[in-house]
Amino acid sequence: MADYDYDLFVIGAGSGGVRAARLTALGGKRVAIAEEHRVGGTCVIRGCVPKKFMVMASEVSHALEIAEGYGWSFDNARFDWPTFLQAKDVEIARLSGIYAANLGKAGVDLIHGRAVLKDAHTVEIVGKDQTVTAEKILIATGGRPWKPEDLPGIEHAITSEEAFHLPELPKRILIAGGGYIAVEFAGIFAGLGVDTTLIYRGPNILRGFDDDVRAHLAGEIEKRGVKVILGCQHTSLERTETGIVNHLGNGMALETDVVMFATGRVPHVKGLGLEAAGVELNEQGAIRVDRWSKTTADNIWAIGDVTDRMNLTPVAIREAVAFHETVYRNNPTAFDYEAVATGVFSQPPVGVVGLTESEARHSCPGEVDVYLTRFRPMKYAFTGSDERVLMKLVVDATSQKVVGVHLVGPEAPEMIQLAAIAVKAGLTKAQWDATCAVHPTMAEELVTLRDKQQPSSMSAG
Fold first, then answer.
1. Which helix (H) or strand (E) covers residue 228, if one does?
2. How far is Cα 132 from Cα 433, in angstroms, rounded to an integer?
3. Could you tell me which residues are beta bridge partners of residue 32?
4. Long-range residue pairs from 155-160, CB within 8 A, at least 24 positions apart, any chain
5. How far apart are CA 308 and CA 326, in angstroms?
6. Residue 143: CB partners within 8 Å, gap ≥ 6?
7. What is each CA distance from 175 to 182, 261, 332, 396, in whole angstroms?
8. How many CA atoms lie within 13 A of 285 on its CB side?
9. Is the CB of residue 211 less than 8 Å from the CB of residue 357?
10. CA 388 to chain CA centroid, nearest Å
11. Could you say which of 112, 268, 362, 439 is catalytic?
C-alpha cells in the first residue's frame, strides 16, 4: 500500500466537510481539512446563520406594531445598523472558532488555504508551497452566488454575500430573484425600513413550491411593504449621481441605492483541478456522484451543495455521516432525500415537507385529497391586520397517507419540523385526526382539518 500523508483529506470546511472530517478522525484515521476562507462554510459565515440573525432583527418592527395593538407604546424606537453588524460579526466569529476548535479536539489538521487537486491522491495548497497526499479525498466546497455577468452594468450589483457587510443600510433596494434567498432578503430589508422592490422573471415567486403557498406568500409579503414585480427582469443597470437606475424589460426604470441579485447559486468547482484527478461534472456543472456520494474517481467523494442534489445544510451533514458510515465503518449508507422538511424565513415564513399538490397528482396512483385553510392568527386580533395564515395537507386518497404539508405563517418552520416526523413515518390522515389539539394554537388546525377542498376550487397545480 502506498504511504500517504493522510487517510482522508477534506476540501472545504463547511458543515458537511467538518462533520465528515471529525467523525473520521475520531475513528482513528489521519485527517486534514483545507478551507480557503473561514471555517464554518456558507451556512455559518455567509448564509443561514447570519441571515437568520438579520431576519430576527428585522422582525422587531412588526412585533412593535403588534405590541401597540396590545397597549404598549414606544417612544423613539430606532434601529442602528452598525450596532447590529458588530454584534452579528462577533457571534459569527465565535461560531467559526467553535468549528475550528472542534476539529482540533478531534485530531484533524486544519490547513488555511485553497486546495487544488494535482492528481487523484495529491493536493496542493496554493501559495503556501505545500503539497500533501491522501488515500481518500472528500470534496465539500459548497456553492457560490450566480449573477448574469453579461448584463450591462452588472458590476454595480451585489449578491447575498455582500449584503451581510453593507457599510450602511440603504434607503432603497431592488432585489432580483424569486427563490428563498431573494424572498428572505426582501423581508429583511423591508422590516428594517428600506424601500424594497422584488422583481422576478417568472409568473410567481418560489418556483418548485406548492402553488397555493406561492400565491399566498406573494400577497402576504406585499402586506409587509415589499413591492413585487413579476414576469420581468433587467435589461441593464446604470450608475448615476443619485443611485443605480434599474432598466427593466417592461419599460420601467427604477432608481435604488443598492441592487442585489439573488438569482441562484452554482457549485463551487472552479479551479479545483477536478479534471487532473479524473472527477467529472454532470450536465448542470455539479460534481457527478452516485448514491453513495462517490465521484468518477475511485478514491474521491463529494457531498453538499457542490453536488447540487438537495442544497440544505442538514442534508450536507447527513450526507457526511452517510459517507463516513459507507467508507470507514463498512456500513453502506445512502441518504434518503424523500420527505425532507425545509423552511423559508420570509416574512411571514414558510414551512413545507413532502409533495406539492401538483406532484402528488402526478405521482400518487389514485385520487388526491386536499385540506386547506386560511385564517387570521390570534395574535393579530387587536391590531386590525388582515394578514392570513395558510395551512394545507395533501393526502393520497388511496392509502390515506399525508404526503405533503405546506404552511405559511408565524412559526411555520418550527411547526414543520414536527410535522415532518409524521410525514416521514407515513402516518394517515385518520392518525392525524386522532391526535388531540393543543388549544389555543395555530398548529391545532393541522389536526382539526375535516373538510376536503372540492375539485372545482382546487388550484391548477
1. strand 227-230
2. 59
3. 9, 109
4. 156/237, 156/238, 156/239, 156/244, 156/259, 157/237, 157/244, 157/259, 157/260, 157/261, 158/258, 158/259, 158/260, 158/261, 159/260, 159/261, 159/262, 160/46, 160/47, 160/51, 160/185, 160/260, 160/262
5. 20
6. 42, 265, 266, 267, 268, 305, 306, 308, 311
7. 6, 6, 43, 38
8. 10
9. yes
10. 24
11. 439
Q: Which are the contacts of 384, defined by CB distance < 8 A and separation ≥ 6? A: 69
pLDDT tens, position by position, 155-175? 999 999 999 999 999 999 999
> How far is Cα 140 from Cα 312, in angstroms, rounded to an integer?
13
Which candidate, 211, 170, 179, 221, places its Cα nearest to that of 348?
221
Nearest C-alpha neighbor of 400 from the set 435, 374, 364: 364
Q: Is 353 left (phi over 0), alpha (psi -120 to 50) or beta?
A: beta
Tell me if residue 439 is catalytic.
yes
* CA–CA distance, 190 with 225 (Å, rounded to integer): 6
What is the C-alpha separation between 137 and 50, in angstroms, rounded?
30
Nine-digit cell at 100?
475550528
**Distance between CA atoms of 163 and 151, rounded to whole angstroms?**
20
Alpha-carbon gap, residue 401 to 394, rounded angstroms: 9
pLDDT digits (tens, 9 = 90+) for 22-79: 999 999 999 999 999 999 998 999 899 999 999 999 999 999 999 999 999 998 899 9
**Which of 317, 294, 295 shows the shortest CA–CA distance to 305?**
317
The C-alpha cell at 122 is 495529491
At 34 the three-state DSSP class reads strand
- How far is the C-alpha of 5 from the C-alpha of 134, rounded, in Å? 6
The sign of the torsion formed by the CA atoms of 238, 244, 246, 251 equals negative
Please give the Cα distance from 299 to 115 (Å, whole number). Answer: 17
Taking each helix axis as running N to C, give the angle between helix 15-26 and helix 313-328, from 0 to 180 degrees, rounded to the nearest 10.
Answer: 30
Q: Are 420 and 341 in contact (CB under 8 A)?
A: yes
pLDDT tens by residue, 268-325 = 999 999 999 999 999 999 999 999 999 999 999 999 999 999 999 999 999 999 999 9
